[in-house]
Amino acid sequence: VRAVLTSVLVLALAGPACAANGKSLFDAGCSRCHGSLGQGLPQKGPSLRDAGALGADFYLRTGYMPLAGSHDQPARARVLYDEHQLRALVGYVASLGHGPAIPAPHWRTASVAAGRQLFADNCAGCHQIVARGGVVTGARVPPLDEATPRQIAQAVRIGPYLMPRFSRKQLTPAQVDDLIAYVQYAKQPDNAGGAGIGQLGPWPEGMVTWLVAAVVLVALCCLFGRRARA
Amino acid sequence: VTRLKDWFAGVLIFAAAFTGRQPEPDRSRIVARGTPQRRAESLLLALLVGATLAALAFVVVFAVDSVGHRTQWLGAALGLALAFLAAACLVLARRLVVTEELVQPYPAREHPEAQRELAQIVVEGGSRFTRKRLVLLAGGGALGALGLAALTPLLSLGPALDPEELTKTPWFRGRRLVDEEGRPLAADAVEAGSFYTAYPEGADRELIGSPVVVVRIRAGVVAYSKICTHAGCAISLYRKPTFPDVQPGPALVCPCHYSTFDPAQDGKVLFGPAGRPLPRLPLETDRAGNLRAAGNFNGPVGPSWWGVRNRKAST
């Protein structure tokens, strides 16, 4: 019901007056790759018929689109449109087909612990358990520190670029809320051990441990070697 | 050399006069006979025995599967063995070997006389020992046990002689695929662009041959072993193109070392250290539309143990 309300709200805000505006923005900024009717062009860009408000809102507000070249991996960039234009564009893309509406996650009351488990099972393979990103063969995996709760909820359903998508059966909206709660926590984690060392995981932590161990070992050697000098 | 010998003799006479225990110094000796240190010697023996026992404990813990906190026990046993050995070395160096500071030019290597002298110094350095053979035995025992402990992990290199054992999995024709909650997985429920983990219905999920990863590609629904053929990590990454025209094709990726397998080409290795394709589980659909195995995997599951790499497919 909320999703429907949101989409109605978006459409209402976009309004008939803005739809024309959205179309002209789409023609100018998107049609070269996605086609003038959003039908997609071979080797250039996919169809947007099923993208819906969810997809358009995600790709535009992360700055993933417009993309410089079809072969590039979309990356977080400056958003080229203002709020008014964004709403018009999202409304126009939503009107192209029967795609999903913009989700409204309720993560504030969700469980961080359950989210962590879900994140470990489904996301940490690529994004790392601390959500700092990494690589997969053929692509960079973005860190999630700038991802807003809404964008996380959208990305799970879309699967941008090479990421798999997760259906509502695989991850229910409530589970996505838990996931978001965990990612929000991971942005400012509680470093129980002391310094977080950039939350980069076991490698730098291991290096620090070795450094400490090396100092202790050298100190011990000095202590044992003292008698020889005396 | 003769001057040095005189110097040593002088030291020996002085030492003998000082301690008063050796009224007639042995002229043939270079290093003074040390006074026996029986307590230190007993301590050394005890430490060596401790090192031996700790190293043997490592072997025992390694051999017995049912030990709780096995990794911690293994680490503790090995650490203790090394600590005992280090303590033994300390006792040996500080309390048992006669030390004298000698300032002399290092003798030429080819000088047999000088070499004999050096050897004599080393032998006489141990003159404090009263139970020399026992100490040597204990030392040899400790080093031998530690060496044994260091070699035991070789057992983990897997069944080198009988790789046939590895083709035994819980999968057989007709066995249903179930999800985490034990619900049967319907073929239609497998959506393109997503990936699913499934298990054999009613079997032990912890077995290396149990988990499979299920994806829908252009050719239909396919299932592969979830265990990477390189080091046995779980294949938890599925790479799927949003726009297949210009983006890399779908691939199953292992997060440990980025071995990348092509689900459209029978699990062919596209990238990474894996030495053989990912074993594929043949699938069929029953009347209810649920996925069932159509047989066993087309190759041995799990990391590439000795002799597994070039084995022919079994089914």
Q: Tell me about the largest β-sheet of chain B.
A: 5 strands, antiparallel
Number of helices of chain B: 5
The percent range for strand residues of chain B is 5-15%
Low-confidence stretches of chain B: none
Count of DSSP-assigned helices of chain A: 9
Rg from alpha-carbon coordinates of chain B: 33 Å
| Protein structure class of chain A | mainly alpha
Strand order of the largest sheet of chain A: 1-2
Fraction of residues in helix of chain B: 25-40%
The neighbouring-strand order within the major sheet of chain B is: 1-2-3-4-9
Strand content of chain A: under 5%
Description:
The complex is a heterodimer of chains A (230) and B (315). Helix content of chain A is 53%, strand content 3%. In chain A, strands 1-2 form a two-stranded antiparallel ribbon. The longest helix of chain A has 28 residues. The radius of gyration of chain A is 23 Å and the shape is elongated. The mean pLDDT of chain A is 86. Chain B is of the alpha+beta class and 315 residues long. Helices cover 33% and strands 13% of the residues of chain B. Chain B has a 5-stranded antiparallel β-sheet with strand order 1-2-3-4-9, with no helix packed on it. A 4-stranded antiparallel β-sheet of chain B has the order 5-6-7-8, with no helix packed on it. A two-stranded antiparallel ribbon of chain B has the order 10-11. In chain B, strand 3 and strand 4 form a beta hairpin. The longest helix of chain B is centred in the N-terminal third of the chain and has 27 residues. The termini of chain B are far apart. The model of chain B has no long low-confidence stretch (mean pLDDT 83). The chains are: A mainly alpha (230), B alpha+beta (315).
Task: List the topology elements.
The complex is a heterodimer of chains A (230) and B (315).
Chain A lengths: L1 H28 L1 H4 L17 H10 L21 H12 L17 H11 L1 H4 L6 E3 L2 E3 L7 H10 L14 H15 L14 H28 L1
Antiparallel strand pairs in A: 1-2
Chain B lengths: L1 H18 L18 H26 L6 H27 L15 H14 L6 H20 L25 E2 L16 E6 L11 E6 L2 E6 L11 E3 L11 E3 L6 E3 L5 E4 L8 E2 L1 E3 L5 E3 L22
Antiparallel strand pairs in B: 1-2, 2-3, 3-4, 4-9, 5-6, 6-7, 7-8, 10-11
